[in-house]
């Protein structure tokens, strides 16, 4: 297992919808391990495969000491909402208040292809929604209201890590069946 570089805001992989996983093999298990190691090292509450340059619908989370992963997630969101601070490993050091569903029921699969159902509220619900958005090419700043998004983009452009040039694209060490970025 290896810690992978995390792609930063501006990298096109973060705006590309990830493809469904169809093969549950050793390579997929290695991807889940790399996502987990990278997330824990960062540290973060979650990490999606596109954030390490792999265009597959896989993410990990670490909330309240519970570490897990989900493949090909489908979400059912509560109508009740929560507002609170949200950050992203691809937008390091910055956070803004973001509205999310208060609770979520997520279904999908584990790394062995077994069905999984996860029910979460508050922080876990926020993390699951955030990471699933990554799989759809959506960043949480897209969910901010117009004024908050304008201010967020200004802060991002002023951040030390923000590249004014086209981001460097690294090849994934994982077999991605042509879906790696």
Q: Could you please describe the fold and organization of this structure?
A:
It contains 3 helices and 7 strands, in the order αβββββββαα. It is α+β, with helices and mostly antiparallel strands. The protein has a single domain (12-158), classed as Peptide deformylase (Peptide Deformylase).
Percent helix: 10-25%
Derived structural class:
alpha+beta
Task: Strand order, main sheet: write it out.
Answer: 1-2-3-6-7
* Main β-sheet description: 5 strands, antiparallel
Rg estimate, integer Å = 16 Å
Tally of discrete structural domains:
1
Reported by name, the CATH topology is Peptide Deformylase
End-to-end span in angstroms? 20 Å
InterPro entries: Peptide_deformylase (IPR023635), Peptide_deformylase_sf (IPR036821)
Active site: 131
Binding site for Fe cation: 88, 130, 134
GO molecular function: metal ion binding; peptide deformylase activity
